[in-house]
Amino acid sequence: MADQHAGPIRSARRRATAVARRFAARPRVAALITRLAPRSVRTRTTLAACVSVAAVLLVASAAVLLLLRANLVRSVEASGREQAQVVSRLAADGRLPNPVPLDHGSDFVQVTDAHGTVVAASQNLAGRPALTPAGTSDGHGTFNLDALGDEHHQRVTTLTTDTPNGPVTIRVGASLHTADTAEDVTTAALAVLSGLLVATVGVVTWKATGRALRPVEVIRSEVAAIGDRDLGRRVPDPGSDDEIARLAHTMNAMLDRLESAGVRQRRFIADASHELRSPLAVLRTQLEVAHTHPDPAIRAEMVAGALQDTGRLQSLAADLLLLARLDATGHSGPMEDIDLAELVRTTAEGRDSRPHPVDLDLAAGCTATGNPMWLGRLLTNLLDNAQRHARSTVAVRLAFDVAAGQAVIDVTNDGPAIDAGDREKVFERFTRLDDARSRDDGGTGLGLSIARDIAALHGGTLTIEDAPAGCTFRVRLPTREAPRSSTGR
Q1: Neighbour-count burial of 348, counting CB atoms closer than 10 A to its CB (0-12 exposed, 13-18 middle, 19+ buried)
Q2: For residue 57, how many other CB atoms are within 10 A of its CB?
C-alpha cells in the first residue's frame, strides 16, 4: 500500500518543486531586465524612436506586400481565365486543336472528358495522364505538376463546358513566377530601405537628443558644484524659449530663494546672538553685584532685576522656538472651525486692562477654519504691541468683507504713527523702530513677525493701515459665514 502511494507523492513533489523554481526565477528575470534596461534618457529615447519607426515600417511593408501579391495573383488568374475561355469556345464549336497552343503567361493546358481521359493538351503535357487534384490552397485546387519535370508555382484555373462529344474539363496553369519574383524583389528592397530608415532615425534621434540634453547636463553639473557657501552662483541660461530654458529659470529662482533664506538665516542667527548677549551680560552683572554686595537691600534689588531679565530671556527663547516651529512645519497644525468673535473676546478679556483697556466692536457669526491656539497667539502679539505703544486707547474691531469673503480684524492704538517706509520693516525679525523703549518694555522684536507668519499660514495677511490717530494693524482671514450682528464693549 505504501508503494502504491509513494509514486504519486513523489510526482506531486516534483511538480511543486518545478512550480516553485519557476516562481523563484521570475524575480531574477525581472532583476536581469532591470539591469539590462538602458539608464540614459538619450539611449531610451533613441531606442523608442527606432522601435516605433520599425513597427510602423513593418506594418506598412506587410500591407504593401499583401496588396502587391493580391494584384499580381489577380492578374495571373485573369490571364489563365482568359486562356480557359478561349479553349472553352473552341471545344464548344468542335474545333479543339491538339496540341493546344499556349498564350503568353500560360504554362500548360489540359482538357479531359467526363471519364478523366485526356482529350487535348498543350505540347509540354502531350502523352501525360490527367492532372489529379492534390488538395486546395486559398480556395483554389492544387495539382501534382511533377509531369512538367520542374518545380513550378502556378495558379490553375478549372472550367467545364459542353461539346458535341459531351462535357469536358479544361485546366489552364498560369505561372506565378513573375509574381514571386516581384514579391521577393519588393521584400528585399523594403527590408533594405527600412533598415536604412531605422538607422537614420536612430542616428538623428541620438544626435538631436544629445544636443537637446546638453544644456541639462550643464545645469546638472553647475547645480552639483554649488555648495552651501556658493549660493550666489547661477546655472547658465540657454537663451531659448523651451522646457530647458524654463528649467534653468526655475533652478535660478530656487537658488534665489535658497540664497535669500540663507541670508535671512544668518541675519537671524546674528540678531538672536545679539539679543541674547545683551540680557545675558546684564543678568551676569546683576548676579555678580548681588553676590558680592554686602547690603541686603541692594542684593534684593539686583535679584529682582535678574528675575526680570530672566523672564525676558524666557520670552525670547519661546519666541525663537515658535519661529523655528513655524519655519519647519509650514502649516498651522490641527484645524477646526473657530468663532472669531468669541476668540477675540476671550483673548481680550483674559488680559490685564493695564496700562490701557481694550474696546471691542465685534461682528458675530464670522467663522474661520484654523488653529485656535496660534490665532490666539496672533491676537495676543498684536494686543501686546498696541498696549505697549498706545497713549490712552486700544480698540479691536471685527468686520466682514463681503466682496472678498474675508474676516477683517483691526487692532488700533492711538500711539505714534508708523511712517509708510517703515511699515514693512516692523515685520522683520528683531526690528525695533524705538529700540531702547521696546527693550525696556520687554519686547523681543519678534511678536509682529510671528503674527504675520501665523496669518500667512492661515491663508491671510497682516498689514498696517492709516488711522485718524496712531496706527491700525489689519488682519484678513478667509471665512465661511457673513456676520449676523455686532456686539461691543
Answers
A1: buried
A2: 18
For 179-213, what is each residue's pLDDT tens digit?
A: 888 888 999 999 999 999 999 999 999 999 888 88
Helix axes 243-292, 177-225, angle to 10 degrees: 20
Residue 227 φ/ψ region, left for φ over 0, alpha for ψ in the -120 to 50 degree band, beta for the rest: beta
What pTM was estimated for this model as a whole?
0.51
Segment (H or E) for 120: strand 118-121
Contact predicate 79/154, CB 8 Å: no
* Element holding 368 (H helix, E strand): strand 367-370
| Euclidean distance between CA atoms 63 and 46, whole angstroms | 26
Q: What is the third-level CATH fold of 70-180?
A: Beta-Lactamase (3.30.450)
CATH number for the domain whose boundaries are 243-322: 1.10.287.130
Specify which residues 359 forms β-bridges with: 395
CA torsion sign for 181, 151, 128, 157 is: negative
Please state the φ and ψ torsions of residue 475, each to the nearest 5 degrees.
-110, 130
Predicted confidence band of residue 59 (pLDDT cuts 50, 70, 90): very high
| Total H helices, total E strands in the chain | 9, 14
Parse the chain into domains and list their residue ranges: 1-37, 70-180, 243-322, 331-488
Closest CA to 472 of 405, 389, 401: 389
Evaluate the CA torsion angle 66, 71, 73, 74 in order and state its sign. Answer: positive
Answer whether 70-180 and 243-322 agree in fold: no
Note the pLDDT of residue 29.
54
d(CA 216, CA 244): 7
> Between 41-92 and 177-225, two packed helices, what is the crossing angle to 10 degrees?
170
Judged by DSSP in three states, 459 sits in: coil
User: How are strands ordered across the β-sheet holding 154-163?
Assistant: 118-121, 106-113, 166-175, 154-163
Give pLDDT, residue 194.
92
Q: Are 146 and 136 in contact (CB under 8 A)?
A: no
What is the distance between the alpha carbons of residues 454 and 371, in angstroms, rounded to a whole number?
9
Q: What Å distances lie between residue 435 and 201, 439, 465, CA to CA?
A: 72, 6, 22
Residue 482: count of CB within 10 angstroms of its CB: 14
Q: Are 304 and 340 in contact (CB under 8 A)?
A: no
CB of 193 within 8 A of CB of 225?
Answer: no
Superfamily designation of domain 331-488: Histidine kinase-like ATPase, C-terminal domain (3.30.565.10)
Closest CA to 385 of 449, 332, 340, 305: 449
